[in-house]
């Protein structure tokens, strides 16, 4: 299964970068509370910390997006980028399963377990050949 579609690794990264930048990275970085409301989160009355953490998370997502875009366009560090993507997917599965088990997150976040599981599977299928 590893690398079954490796010939299309760069195209996968390009499409993934476009989609995740528009749906996750930019909204979380620029308008974290709007994004949180859309995802079903209840917002506290004091929001400065939530905005701060949202923008910090958004900044890290944008770093991963930049790695993906560089690898998609040039092929540079493509293996490292896929390793980062796999690590992100695994860690996000853990974060979302924990939240689901504790019942401390909205349904949209629990559904992201499926999203990140699918992302992990696709990342493994598109894993670049060595």
The helical percent reads over 70%
Largest β sheet strand count, sense and barrel closure: none
Please tell me the overall pLDDT: 97
Alpha-beta content class? mainly alpha
Secondary structure: number of strands:
0
Uncertain segments are: none
Number of domains: 1
How many helices in DSSP terms? 5
Approximate shape: globular
Strand/helix succession: HHHHH
Keywords: Membrane, Transmembrane, Transmembrane helix
Transmembrane segments: 12-38, 50-72, 84-101, 113-129
Can you put this structure into words, describing what you see?
The protein is mainly α. The chain has one domain (6-125). Helices cover 77% and strands 0% of the residues. The protein contains 5 helices and no strands. Helix 1 runs antiparallel to helix 3, helix 3 packs antiparallel against helix 4 (78-102) and helix 4 runs antiparallel to helix 5 (107-125).
Short description:
The chain has five helices and no strands.
Keywords:
130 residues, mainly alpha, 5 helices, globular
Task: Spell out the blueprint of helices and strands.
Layout: H1 9-30, H2 32-38, H3 48-74, H4 78-102, H5 107-125
Helix pairs in contact: 1-2, 1-3, 3-4, 4-5
């Amino acid at each position: 299964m590893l690398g079954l579609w490796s010939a299309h690794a760069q195209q996968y990264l390009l499409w993934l970068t476009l989609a995740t930048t528009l749906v996750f990275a930019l909204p979380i970085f620029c308008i974290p509370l709007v994004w949180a409301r859309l995802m079903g989160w209840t917002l506290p009355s004091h929001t400065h910390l939530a905005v701060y953490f949202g923008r910090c998370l958004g900044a890290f997502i944008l770093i991963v997006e930049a790695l993906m875009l560089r690898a998609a366009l040039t092929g540079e560090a493509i293996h490292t980028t896929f390793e980062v993507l796999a690590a992100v997917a695994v860690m996000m599965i853990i974060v979302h399963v924990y939240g689901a088990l504790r019942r401390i997150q909205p349904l949209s976040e629990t559904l992201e377990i499926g999203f990140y599981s699918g992302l992990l599977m696709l990342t493994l299928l598109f894993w670049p050949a060595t």
